[in-house]
Structures are given as structure tokens and as C-alpha cells.
């Protein structure tokens, strides 16, 4: 996967509203108006979030007249899952995925769960990628 594609996908996943939109889309395709309903923000603001998800290749838009229908871009999510798979298998290096090292700083292997920085589950969508790929599996992808 190209670095610019990964950057766009991870940037799109970096916001809890966009992750919530993806979770909604797990139930199936939806109009922009329906996706905006649960959020206390303007339709224009939700539309900007959807555009970021499109830029990240995570959703697709079909336009029929004035109706914009959004759905999950399953192929891109599958590619993202393939890229992430080695990270979940206990590998300590991802240099096979990138053309440059991720960091020149040594990793502190003595950090415990209590001291290691982490994002609360509510912020991460509770394993969003796992949920999405599980949904894709059920859809036959």
C-alpha cells in the first residue's frame, strides 16, 4: 500500500465522528442526511467528515439526482487490514511495509499497561477495524 494512501486512511480514522459514521455504515449504505441525524452538527459539517472518509478511501458515494448514498469501501478496508495484520501478530518491525523507518527512537520495552500511553476504547471505536472486517467477511469479501 502506498504511503499517501495509508496517510489518508489513518487521517480519516483520526476523528471520533468519522469512526462513528463508519460504524453506522456497517449497518448498510445510507444517505448523507440519515448519517447526519445522530450528530449535533450541521449537515455541512457531517458532509465534510464524509469527504475526509472518501479522501481516505474508506467510503464510496453514489449520486442519483440530489440523493447522495454513502457506503463502506470494502476493498480499501481489506487492503488496510492486510497492511495492519503483521502488527497484530506480535511483530516488532513494520519496515517491510514502509520505505522509511517509523521512528529513530528506541522502544521502551519496560513500560507497563498502566504507564504506556493509550487511547480509551470509546475513542477508538472499540476495535473499529475488527468490526468492519468482520462485517466484510459476512458480506463475502
Distinctive features:
Arc Repressor Mutant, subunit A, single chain, 141 residues, three-stranded antiparallel sheet, globular, mainly alpha, 3 strands
Q: How would you describe this structure to a colleague?
A:
The protein has 141 residues and is mostly helical. It has one domain: Winged helix-like DNA-binding domain superfamily/Winged helix DNA-binding domain (Arc Repressor Mutant, subunit A, Orthogonal Bundle), CATH 1.10.10.10. It is 48% helix and 10% strand. It is built from seven helices and three strands, in the order ααβααββααα. A three-stranded antiparallel β-sheet has the order 1-3-2. Helix 5 (74-88) crosses helix 7. The protein is globular and about 40 Å long. The two termini are 18 Å apart. Mean pLDDT is 77; it is low at 92-125.
Any idea what the CATH superfamily is called? Winged helix-like DNA-binding domain superfamily/Winged helix DNA-binding domain
Report, as a whole number of angstroms, the end-to-end distance.
18 Å
CATH third-level topology: Arc Repressor Mutant, subunit A
How can the largest sheet be summarized?
Answer: 3 strands, antiparallel
Q: Report the total helices.
A: 7
Number-wise, the strands total 3
How many discrete structural domains? Answer: 1
At the first level of CATH, what is the class? Mainly Alpha
**Order of SSEs, N→C?**
HHEHHEEHHH
Relative helix content: 40-55%
Amino acid at each position: 500500500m502506498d504511503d499517501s494512501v495509508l496517510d489518508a486512511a489513518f487521517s480519516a480514522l483520526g476523528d471520533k465522528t468519522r469512526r462513528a459514521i463508519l460504524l453506522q455504515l456497517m449497518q448498510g449504505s445510507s444517505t448523507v442526511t440519515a448519517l447526519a441525524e445522530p450528530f449535533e452538527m450541521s449537515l455541512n459539517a457531517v458532509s465534510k467528515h464524509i469527504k475526509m472518509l472518501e479522501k481516505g478511501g474508506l467510503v464510496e458515494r453514489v449520486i442519483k439526482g440530489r440523493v447522495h448514498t454513502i457506503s463502506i469501501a470494502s476493498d480499501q478496508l481489506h487492503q488496510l487490514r492486510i497492511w495492519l495484520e503483521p502488527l497484530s501478530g506480535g511483530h516488532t518491525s513494520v519496515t517491510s511495509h514502509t520505505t522509511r523507518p517509523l521512528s529513530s527512537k528506541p522502544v521502551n520495552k519496560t513500560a507497563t499497561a498502566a504507564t504506556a500511553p493509550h487511547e480509551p476504547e470509546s475513542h477508538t471505536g472499540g476495535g473499529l477495524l475488527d468490526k468492519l472486517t468482520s462485517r466484510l467477511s459476512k458480506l463475502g469479501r
